[in-house]
Fold:
Amino acid sequence: MDVPTVDRQREIREGRRCLTIDCGCAFTLVFNPTPLESSVRRIGTFTEASMNYTVYCDESRHTGGADCKYAVIGGLWVARERRDAISKELRGLKTANDVSAELKWSKVSRLKLEPYKRVVDYYWDCPHLHYRAIVVDQDTVDYKSFHDGDMELGFYKFYYEMLEKWLLAGNDYNILLDFKNNSNARRLPVLRRMLHNYCNARGASVSNLTSIDSKQSNLSQVCDLFTGALSADANGLPTGSPKHELIKYMEHRRGVSPLSARSTSPAMGKFNVFRIALRGGSLRDAC
Structure:
């Protein structure tokens, strides 16, 4: 399945129908329009009623460098009507397991391994939480040809890729990204406009897109945990370490090994992973 690419000339030469959205700020997206019926059909029971979702987002190893071949961008979907109750339950779970600090992948230790496993259990046992992530091989990204030489611009295009397949007809989304300092202050408004245009054509909506400090949200911290685990699994880490043991536990709960193995479908589910396959620097969905 084709997904957004900035190489419009190639799209034209290959004869594919495409829709171009250009909102300035060197951010142009081209994608093949999907009929609304297809969007409804692929998500099965999740389309039985309109839903409002809050989506907590995080990223890992996206800045490049040593041990950062694979970047991961992830999002945690939670039904908005259940958000406060779930956050309260997570807070109680942390208290019961003597975890006073922020939940973070970087804080996984031998001492806190069992409490972190209980958080993993909570996620898999809660029917109102869903996680999706993309894994990007950064060695294959041609920032010069396809992102105006701008690594940050490419980063937000990948954010779009992670989000768009789960922005479904009839639903409204409040999207919360982990705070980061951008070189261009218009990155988030542009991303919001792109997602709004995408949703508007499909009967969905994005009521808000902003950044938050993960310290303020237990759900954002759960997203950090899974995103960090996926990037560590994709890039490799020492066996026998507490983090490796936690990844193996996540694999057990997911029922798939390795943890970063791609899902067979982009449809909304419990734990969805897809890998971006790049052809000449443009984007193709590997799922």
